[in-house]
């Protein structure tokens, strides 16, 4: 199982943190996701590109 780190800005509300967590957890292969205001740590068998796409779909830029 791989651990993938994502860094992002612009997450100011708990609601958005929860939306990001839900979006990541719904992806096939994700075992766990710890999300905060400045990034996320994801465990599982999933491609980083899929994680980035899910977060950016919510209007949050990943770098």
Written account of the structure:
It comes from Onishia taeanensis. InterPro entries: HMA_dom_sf. This is Copper chaperone CopZ. The structure is a single chain. The mean pLDDT is 97. A hairpin with a 3-residue loop joins strand 2 (30-35) and strand 3. The chain has one domain (2-56): Alpha-Beta Plaits. The chain contains two helices and three strands; from the N terminus they run βαββα. The protein has helices at residues 14-25, 48-56; strands at 2-7, 30-35, 39-44. The radius of gyration is 10 Å and the shape is globular. With 63 residues, the protein is an alpha+beta fold. A three-stranded antiparallel sheet has the order 1-3-2.
Task: List the SSEs and their pairings.
Elements: E1 2-7, H1 14-25, E2 30-35, E3 39-44, H2 48-56
Antiparallel strand pairs: 1-3, 2-3
């Amino acid at each position: 199982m791989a651990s993938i780190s994502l860094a992002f800005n612009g997450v100011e509300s708990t609601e958005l943190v929860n939306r990001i967590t839900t979006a990541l957890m719904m992806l096939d292969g994700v075992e766990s996701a710890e999300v905060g205001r400045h990034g996320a740590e994801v465990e599982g068998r999933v491609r980083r590109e899929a994680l980035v796409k899910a977060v950016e779909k919510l209007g949050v830029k990943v770098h």
